[in-house]
């Protein structure tokens, strides 16, 4: 059996090649994807905001994998319950730490340019944390894990995926504006 999400998820956080390859002049598909998402941001040296965008990429990848696994459980009952539960908890831990970093570094800088944006994003973080909390509570419940349970689980993962994707897209847009206005 192959490792789940090999090359995706958390692995997306770990550069597979030197960080300088994220430079817009590099010819890697991953760098062109990153640059497309960030406008003209080049490297983590010239733009620390790129690190946050890379975390977003990893979070999206992990969410996609978790959602796929949850849907598999709901439709055909296949998969490893313990693994799925551990991945959900791990993703929530990564997400919380990422949000704390944004709240401490990115949002105060954005708030200088766009009033109340920090508070808005912090409220969104709280709402998303609540969604994760509900998901983890469902996983911890001592209910019979039948098809109904797994459909509910897949639905909650889908809600988190939708919410986070929209939220991260807004953050990236705002952060890119911050990057462009600070030069």
From TrEMBL:
UniProt xrefs under InterPro entries: Hemerythrin-like (IPR012312)
Species of origin: Vanilla planifolia
Entry protein name: Hemerythrin-like domain-containing protein
Residues annotated as domain Hemerythrin-like: 51-173
Coiled coil: none
Bias-annotated ranges (Low complexity): 25-38
Region of interest (Disordered), ranges: 20-41
Domain of life assignment: Eukaryota
């Amino acid at each position: 059996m192959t490792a789940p999400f090999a090359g995706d998820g958390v692995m997306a956080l770990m550069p597979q090649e030197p960080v300088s390859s994220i430079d817009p002049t590099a010819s890697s598909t991953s760098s062109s994807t990153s640059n497309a998402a960030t406008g003209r941001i080049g490297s983590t040296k010239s733009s620390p905001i790129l690190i946050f965008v890379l975390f977003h990429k990893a979070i999206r990848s992990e969410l996609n994998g978790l959602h796929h696994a949850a849907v598999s459980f709901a439709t055909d009952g296949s998969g490893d319950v313990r693994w799925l539960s551990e991945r959900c908890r791990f993703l929530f831990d990564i997400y919380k730490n990422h949000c704390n970093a944004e709240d401490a570094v990115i949002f105060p800088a954005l708030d200088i340019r766009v009033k109340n944006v920090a508070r808005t994003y912090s409220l969104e973080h709280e709402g998303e944390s609540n969604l994760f909390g509900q998901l983890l509570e469902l996983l911890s419940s001592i209910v019979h894990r039948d098809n109904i349970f797994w459909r509910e689980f897949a639905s909650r993962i889908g809600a988190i995926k939708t919410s986070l994707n929209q939220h991260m897209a807004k953050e990236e847009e705002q952060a890119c504006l911050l990057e462009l206005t600070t030069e």
